Amino acid sequence: MKLNDRILHGGAWEGASIASQAILQFVVLAVLARNLEAEAFGTVALANIFMAFALLFSEIGVGPAIVQKKNLCKEHISTGFAITLLLGIIFTALTWLLSPTIANYFDNDQLIPILHLLSLTFIIRSTGIISASLLQREFQFKKLMVINFTSSTIGYATVGIVLALHGYGVFSLVLAMLGQELIRAVLLTSLRPHTFLPTISSKHIYELVNFGAGLTLARLFNYFALQGDRFIIAKFLGTTTLGYYHIAFQIMLLPSRYIGDVFDKVLFTALSSIQDEKDRVSNIFNHTSSIANLLVLPLSVILIANAEKLVLVVVGADWLQIVSPLQIMLLGAGFRVNTRLSDALMRATGAVYYNAVVKLIYAIAIICSCFIGKEYQMVGIAWAVLLAVIIHYSLVLFYCFKYVNTSFSKYLKSIAPGLFYAILSYLVSKSSIEMLGHFELSAYISLLLSILVTISAIMITALLFPKSLGNSGIWLYRTMHNRLTQSS
Question: Is the whole model's pTM more than 0.85, yes or no?
Fold first, then answer.
């Protein structure tokens, strides 16, 4: 199978996985938001600040190193398993021991039992890291989709909803996360077994950790960027405000994270396999960027236009104060996805230490801007984060321009179809919302009709003016059409 076909095939399955998880998460969010207080979400978000930090070092980039390694041998796999398992045990113990200190710092005793339970995440996850990396390396995205969907459905959704309905409060969220990790680890090790006998080889440790250390450094700075806004909100605005911000952020992730995840994983895997072939790397990167923007830009503006109805449908009227911060966050969705693509290119080509410097600047921008923005509550934080996201995007794009030897005008031409359909989507969405406002419709019906009208406008425009999709969009349409024709 040609690399383009493998990318499309892998992207389709990864897309199916991400889409199913996104829908599932929205359903779970809708149920939990109506049965839990904002403070419960804030407390879990607070615990996740520490958990996300510890997770950075519980793997030290061994998983991505397995994917990126051009000549992988059995010793790399067994050594990688030994490293991840040992670190999983260490960080489980550390989290358990440090939980009283963390709870005392945030003046929240409820964090102690929560962190005690979540500490098990490290040792559970460590058993499946190598299996997940091998499946990704082998383009087995169909298996990964089945694993992720099953663990999300049974482990997270079922456990979380049942416990929330039975009054377990914040622990319904905690046990749901644990259940998801446990089922995922069991499925990973069952569907992609490897040498589970851990061995230590200094040579192979160096080869894995040399790449992994740079990646971990980049992730460390990225952690401060991603958690900096939450930390400032928790410290200066309170846990309840953090809960509201957390929900707005989760909704915003629909276009930026979920679409970004698809292209990040598949692009990183593909580019790693041809990392020494600069021309092919350049062509695939530009091709993928055009398709990603064609998807994420229209989706993000549809959500901006329908933000109020979206909040009413997903989490209810009690959460309407998150509408403005959500719309501001969604303005950065396109920047976030393009940053993810550039990030994948840097990892695949080994530029992990340059990436680390970029992430450091991003973290400083987030923390400084949010410290100023806190004076204007959630809206100020949202604008501060957007500014930092644009700075981050500009820095990673500089590397990509240099590596793939392109110009801003060529780049702008590649994303022009996405910008065109974004403008079209916004105009149609706003018009449909205004028209539907004359009728007494529920938020559910109004949101559904607005989205259907906008999607119909996009499809009609693409059929009447196929060149508006750009070369990459036309290639995607023809490839998908041929595959559907052959399957039928």
Answer: no
363-385, pLDDT tens digit by residue? 999 999 999 999 999 999 999 99
Please determine, for residue 59, whether its predicted confidence score (pLDDT) is greater than 90.
Answer: no
Number of C-beta neighbours around residue 348 at 10 A: 22
Give phi and psi for 134, each to the nearest 5: -65, -40
Cα gap 368→228, rounded to integer Å: 9
Give the torsion through C-alpha atoms of 228, 229, 232, 234, to 10 deg. Answer: -110
List the structure tokens of 83: 């490293």
Q: Chain-centre distance of CA 149, in angstroms?
A: 15
Structure tokens that stand for 314 in this block? 């997903």
- Say how far apart CA 126 and CA 197 lie, in whole Å: 14
Cα–Cα distance measured from residue 75 to residue 194, given in angstroms and rounded to the nearest whole number? 11
**Mean pLDDT of the region 161-177:** 86
Residue type, 298: P
56, 223 Cβ separation under 8 angstroms: yes
| Both structure tokens of 375 | 């004076």
Question: Could you give the CA distance from residue 78 to residue 187 in angstroms, rounded to a whole number?
Answer: 19
Instruction: Tell me the DSSP string of 165-212.
Output: HTT-THHHHHHHHHHHHHHHHHHHHHHS----S----HHHHHHHHHHH
CA distance 193 to 63: 15
Length of the chain: 488
CB count in 10 Å sphere of residue 74 = 11
Q: Which of 178, 189, 171 is nearest to 155 (CA)?
A: 178
CA 193 to chain centre: 26
DSSP states of 279-348 as a string?
Answer: HHHHHHHHHHHHHHHHHHHHHHHHHHHTHHHHHHHHT-GGGGGGHHHHHHHHTTHHHHHHHHHHHHHHHH
The values of phi and psi at residue 162, to 5°, are: -60, -45
* CA dihedral for 25, 28, 34, 36, sign (positive or negative): negative
For residue 226, give the nearest of 43, 445, 51, 402 by alpha carbon. 51
Vertex 486, ends 483 and 488: CA angle to 5°?
110
**Other C-beta atoms within 10 Å of 261: how many?**
19
Q: Do residues 297 and 422 make contact, with C-beta atoms less than 8 angstroms apart?
A: yes
Alpha carbon 67 to its chain's center = 18
Which of left, alpha, beta for 198 (phi over 0: left; psi -120 to 50: alpha)? beta
The residue type of 152 is S
Distance CA 449, CA 38 (A): 30
Percent with pLDDT over 70 in the chain: 93
